[in-house]
Amino acid sequence: FIYPSWFVFNIGFIVSRIMFIKQRITDIFVSVLVIIISLPLFPLIALAIKLESKGPVFYQQARVGFKEEIFQIIKFRTMREDAEQGTGVMWAQVDDDRTTRVGGFLRKTRLDELPQLFNILKGDMSFVGPRPERPEFVEHLNEKIPFYSRRHAVRPGLTGWAQVMYPYGASDE
């Protein structure tokens, strides 16, 4: 339902330098504050992950960000270490059998997202914006959804409209 004229007349894609700086300052301040508050949870989550499964505590994955630049998103690992070995790249599903028990809890509570505060601090992400997708999915979505790449005109976010309005995104829809 998006037409080319929507981009021409929509002020949401016009970000002034002052607005950009205000957002960046807010992102830095809030991410530092939330990191300080949530830091006691990090060792507890790490211990739970290590006790349940082999592999690293943190998971890094390539994502497409601002101006279509690739960056490494950081999360607590919620799946088996070999999750995509037999299947290749695929979207995570609700009740995904590749997810560990601890991982399922972390996903439901969104605690697996806490390390992304460091992505925000680094400048790869913002607090609010479209969720960053994997390059493999972006290529597919660019073909399926008109103007999909316009979402890269802003920094990707820790949360956004889709996370508030819809359940886990696991398809084109």
Describe the structure.
The chain is α+β, with helices and mostly antiparallel strands and 173 residues long. It is 41% helix and 12% strand. The protein contains seven helices and four strands. The protein has helices at 4-9, 17-38, 41-52, 101-109, 116-122, 135-144, 161-165, and strands spanning 58-64, 70-76, 126-128, 157-159. A two-stranded antiparallel ribbon has the order 1-2. It has a two-stranded parallel ribbon with strand order 3-4. α2 runs antiparallel to α5 (116-122) and α3 (41-52) packs antiparallel against α4 (101-109). The longest helix is centred in the first third of the chain and has 22 residues, at 17-38. It is globular and about 55 Å long. The model has no long low-confidence stretch (mean pLDDT 84).
End-to-end Cα distance, whole Å, is 13 Å
Radius of gyration: 17 Å
Give the helices and strands as they follow along the chain: HHHEEHHEHEH
The profile of the biggest β sheet is:
2 strands, antiparallel
Tell how many strands the DSSP assignment holds: 4
Provide the residue-averaged pLDDT: 84
Shape: globular
Low-confidence stretches: none
Order of strands, widest sheet: 1-2
Question: What structural class do you assign from the helix and strand content?
Answer: alpha+beta
Helix content: 40-55%
List the total number of helices: 7
Beta-strand portion reads: 5-15%
Short account of what is shown:
By secondary structure, this protein is of the alpha+beta class. It is built from 7 helices and 4 strands.
Reconstruct the topology from this structure.
Elements: H1 4-9, H2 17-38, H3 41-52, E1 58-64, E2 70-76, H4 101-109, H5 116-122, E3 126-128, H6 135-144, E4 157-159, H7 161-165
Parallel strand pairs: 3-4
Antiparallel strand pairs: 1-2
Helix pairs in contact: 2-5, 3-4
